[in-house]
Amino acid sequence: MAITAKEVAINKVDPNSFSPRELEEISQLHFQIQALSGIVLSENEGSFSLQFLINVGQADEKASRTYIGGESVVKFENVQKFTSCLQMALLEATS
Questions:
Q1: What tens digit of pLDDT does each residue of 22-41 get?
Q2: Are 73 and 47 in contact, with CB atoms under 8 Å apart?
């Protein structure tokens, strides 16, 4: 039975009770977001690429992990709108 890092933290499970292989499994990221290169035209204009990756497993112990995902270009304008909305939502949630 696989156990996640979140379950270890929530249940305060002793990490010393796991084998090295189990600890490696727990510490693996199952979802990644990577910011890649982009173009800056001005302080408010430009874009960059984001990759979204999901870990779908490992064929065997000697193989590397397999990820699937997608890539998209993000405009600075949209990042600014998103972060502004996120800040407003956080303020509302904490007041």
A1: 766 666 667 888 888 899 99
A2: yes
